[in-house]
Amino acid sequence: xxxxxxxxxxxxxxxxxxxxxxxxxxxxxxxxxxxxxxxxxxxxxxxxxxxxxxx
Length: 55
What we know:
The protein is an all-alpha fold. It has one domain. The chain is built from two helices and no strands. The chain has helices at 6-22, 29-54. The protein is elongated, with a radius of gyration of 14 Å.
């Protein structure tokens, strides 16, 4: 797992979360929180870029 883009990181985190869920492991809690924060950062970047382009 080597995320080169933010989408790669989100994909990798989802794979970790899915694996933890299958194993009924609580180790997936941190990746789940990290994925949520990463997705929010991605959305913030997208919003900032759109505002810049429209300005």
